[in-house]
Specification:
The protein is mainly α and 186 residues long. Helix content is 81%, strand content 0%. The chain has helices spanning 3-23, 30-54, 60-83, 89-113, 121-147, 152-180.
Length: 186
């Protein structure tokens, strides 16, 4: 269990407090705490990859668990947002279907050929777009919480657009991932 893998496990563990702060509406400053936790969790994704590449700590565990940790973090937050009506349902459904499909393909590739296929550039762009969208929702809610200013229509429009864009990136990256690995699926 090297440092990058420990950071990946930490990212999964940070999902729980992030979700709790989002869902427990009576906690003062909940959006600030959510932002701090989510931003730190997102940073661990960058950091574990950087350390793994720099010190050649790339492991099969990391190749499997790093994208899985991202999926757990992102899907958990997006489902919370749907429940609070901070996100439309359909793009989140697309994202969840994409994530389960790609994860299933990844495990099928591992089971049938022992091949661990890391995320490609499209998967990384997808993750960045999702993190940006989620941070935007959190920051807008934090602004409303701190100032009491209800710019909900504008903030919702921007948030919804960013979530839809991340859904588009998710679908594109999923199709590309499956297409690139189709020869291993036969």
């Amino acid at each position: 269990m090297n440092t990058p893998n420990k950071l990946t496990v930490l990212r999964i563990l940070l999902v729980f407090p992030a979700v709790l702060f989002v869902l427990y509406t009576h906690i003062p400053g909940r959006w600030l705490f959510t932002f701090l936790i989510f931003a730190f969790a997102s940073y661990t994704d960058y950091l574990d990859g950087k350390i793994a590449r720099k010190y050649n700590f790339i492991t099969d565990f990391g190749k499997i668990m790093d994208p899985l940790a991202d999926k757990i973090l992102v899907i958990s937050m997006l489902i919370c947002f749907v429940g609070l009506k901070l996100s439309p349902v359909l793009p989140v459904v697309f994202i969840v279907i994409r994530e389960f499909t790609v994860t299933s393909v990844r495990f099928l590739l591992l089971k049938t050929g022992g091949k661990v296929v890391p995320a490609n550039i499209w998967g990384k762009l997808k993750t960045v777009s999702q993190i940006i969208a989620i941070n935007a929702v959190i920051i807008f809610q934090m602004y409303i919480e701190i100032t009491g200013n209800k710019l909900g229509v504008i903030f919702n429009a921007i948030s919804y657009l960013l979530i839809w864009l991340s859904a588009v990136f998710s679908l594109i990256s999923g199709v590309i991932y499956i297409w690139e690995n189709r020869k291993f699926l036969n």
